[in-house]
Amino acid sequence: MQLKRIITIAAFAVSGLIITSCSRQVTRVNTDEAIDVSGNWNNTDSRLVAQDLTQNILGAAWLSNHLEQNAGKKPVVIVGMVQNKSHEHIEAETFVKDVEQAFLQTQRVRLVQGGKKREELRAEKADQQSNASVSSMKKFGLENGADYILQGSINSIVDSHKRKKVVYYQVNLELTNIQTNEVVWIGEKKIAKYVKN
């Protein structure tokens, strides 16, 4: 009887520990608030780097040169591939969307779709050729061709010893004139994070 009571008490104690250790508290926060939990690349890094580099791009000489050479007509830009070459899994598409959003907010360039989204748009146009009324059908060959393509990479270096590490990120972007293949702008943004466990 005594052994049975001890086993019952032990079982309750263990289940109490399990329930306590599994409880989780979730708090909603402002998405603009900078919170570093792991020290890894996060949404704040993506947003700030995109804003900084976009501001840098739009302040460079290529834009005024383009406007001057094209009677004030805004350049058409496509954001191409940004490769993740870092040590982490970074969803580069999130960064690309942050760059595109920063471009659109300024209204200083015109932005066209690229990659898979452009393919989807073309597939929709193809479908409309046989399924939409002639008056509402969108025609092929009327897309805005991009004047420039923005491409780049996200790189990282980790320096660690025991329970300390410094994570260094470098984002490199290049803007290229599609007609001439001339690189008209190169920019980089660096972030360093000191993490102590």
Please give a structural write-up:
- The protein is α/β, with parallel strands linked by helices and 197 residues long.
- The chain has a single domain, classed as Rossmann fold (3-Layer(aba) Sandwich), CATH 3.40.50.
- It contains 5 helices and 5 strands, in the order αααβαβαβββ.
- The protein has a 5-stranded mixed beta sheet with strand order 2-1-3-4-5, with helices on one face.
CATH architecture label: 3-Layer(aba) Sandwich
Number of domains: 1
The beta-strand count equals: 5
Strand proportion, as a percent range, falls in 25-35%
Main sheet strand line-up: 2-1-3-4-5
Distance between the termini: 48 Å
Query: Largest sheet at a glance?
Result: 5 strands, mixed
Q: Which H/E pattern describes the elements?
A: HHHEHEHEEE
CATH topology: Rossmann fold
Poorly predicted ranges: none
Q: Give the C-level CATH assignment.
A: Alpha Beta
Share in helix: 25-40%
Question: So what's the overall shape?
Answer: elongated
Oligomer: single chain
SS-derived structural category: alpha/beta
- Total number of helical segments? 5
- Radius of gyration, in Å, reads 26 Å
Q: What is the mean predicted local confidence, pLDDT?
A: 86
Protein topology:
Layout: H1 2-22, H2 43-58, H3 61-69, E1 76-84, H4 92-106, E2 110-112, H5 115-131, E3 148-161, E4 164-177, E5 183-196
Parallel strand pairs: 1-2, 1-3
Antiparallel strand pairs: 3-4, 4-5
Helix pairs in contact: 2-4
Short characterization:
The chain has helices at residues 2-22, 43-58, 61-69, 92-106, 115-131, and strands at residues 76-84, 110-112, 148-161, 164-177, 183-196. It has 197 residues and is of the alpha/beta class.
